[in-house]
Amino acid sequence: MKRLLQKIPDSLLRVGSVFIVFITVVLLIRSLIPASLKNSEEHRNATVEREVAHPVKHAGSEVCADCHEQYELKKTGYHKNLACETCHGAAQAHSEDQEIKPVLNRKREACTLCHLFNPSRPTGFPQINPVVHNPGKQCITCHNPHDPKPPRVPKDCQACHEQIERTKAVSPHVQLDCTTCHTVNEQHKITPRVVKANIPNDRTFCGKCHANDSKIKETPKVDLSTHGEKYLCWECHYPHMPEVN
Amino acid sequence: MERRRFFGKGFTLLAQYGLISSVFKRASAEPKDYDASKHYYGMGIQVNKCIGCGKCMEACKEENGVSKEPFYFRTWVERYSIKKDGEVIVQSIDPRIDTLGNTVSEKDVMRSFFVPKLCNQCDHPPCVQVCPVGATFKTDDGVILVDSERCIGCRYCIQACPYGARYLNPETSTADKCTFCYHRITKGMLPACVEVCPTQARIFGDTRSTASPLTRFKRMFKLHVLKPSLNTDPKVQYADLDGEVR
Predict the structure, then answer these.
(1) What pLDDT score was predicted for residue B99?
(2) Residue B100 burial (CB < 10 Å; 0-12/13-18/19+)?
(3) Are A53 and B183 within 8 A, CB to CB?
C-alpha cells in the first residue's frame, strides 16, 4: 500500500487532495440548501403549506349568528343573502376578541355604495337618486339595514310589480302614477292572471303627452305622423324607463 | 484519528438533518383532513347580477393582505360602456373614489354593465409554462399558486397572462395573484369575494361535485369563458357575458 502511494507522483497527490476537498465543499453546500428549493415536489408542498397557513380574516355569517340577534331578523328580509361582513367588514378578529369592533358605518355613503342610481347597474336593482331621495338624511332613520323595507308597506301595484316600480323610480316617468297609463279593474288584484290590467294600445295614447300638439309643456315632443313609421311607441321605448336621448 | 472522528460525526449530522427536515416537511404539507386530489375548484360569475359596488375588491385586499394602493388587485371590476357608434370603453372601477366614475356621457351609451374579473385559474395556464424557475404551478385541486420563495421577480408570467390577473407584489418583489383564497377553501369556507358579494354574482364550488352551487349554476345558465380562442381552458366561467368583453 505504502509503495503504491510512493509510486504516485507527488503532483498528482496534491491535485487529488485539492479535488477531494472541492467535492467535500460542494456536498456540504448542497446539504445546506433547504430541500424545498431542490425538489419541486417539496417546494410545492411548502408553498401549499404556506398558503394554507395564511390567517383567515372573514369569519362567515354563521359565526355572527351565535351572539347577534340581528341575524334572525336579516334572515327573512331583502338583505337575507348578504353576508354580515359585506357591510361590517372582516370580523374574524372580532369573533375572537370582542374588544376589536367591526365597522359600523351609518353614513349615507355606506348604503349608496350599492343603491345609488348607476346606469350600468342591472335593471330592477333598487336604486335611488340621492338628490331627490331625502337629501342629507341618514338612510337608517327610515330603513332598518337588517330588514330593509320601504318605510310604507308596498300597496297597490308595487306589491307585485316591485321591479317595475323600482325601475320607474329612477326614470323620467317617476312622477306618473301607474293609473296614468293602466286602467285596473278591482278584480285584477284578486285574480291577477284572469283579469288583466289594461295597457295602452295605440300611438295616440303616448301622443297625449308627446305629440307636437300636446298641451303638456315639459315633455319631449315628436311628430306622430312621421316619427317611428308603423311601429308602436313601446316597441322602441320602454315606457317604465324611457331613454331620453 | 481526531480528524477522522470529526468528519464522521459531521457527515452523520448532515445526513440526519437532511432526513429529518424532509420527513417533517412532507408530513405537515397539508391539513390532515383535507385531500386536495378529491377537489377541483371553479367559479361562476353572473354578469347581470354585478352592481359594481366593489365589495369583492375590498374584501380580497383585506383577506389576502394585498397592498392598499390602487394599482394592486387580485380581483377587480370593469365597467363596460358600449357607445352608439360601437366604441367600447372599459374602466376599472374604484368605488372609494367615485362610484359612478363616469367619463362617458350617458347619452352616448348604448348599453353598459359591470364585469368582475380575477385569475381564471386556467387548466392550461400560460403563466406556469413560461416561468423560468418553476415557481408557479397547479395544485391537485386546480388552483394556480406562486412560490414566493422561488420566484425571482422576472415578470415573465405577468406578461404571459392573457387576463392581466398577475401583479408584482411591491413588498416581496415577487409575482402574486388570486389563490381562490386557498387558505379558506381548504378549510371549507368560501373565497372572501364570494362571501361578501351582496348579489351573489359570484358562485364558487367544486367542479366535480354533483350537487354544488357551481354545478347548479352550470346547469342553469348559458356559459362562456374569457378569450376561449387561447385554449387556456379557464375554470372561471361567465353567464350573460357580452361579446364585447375581452
Answers:
(1) 46
(2) middle
(3) yes
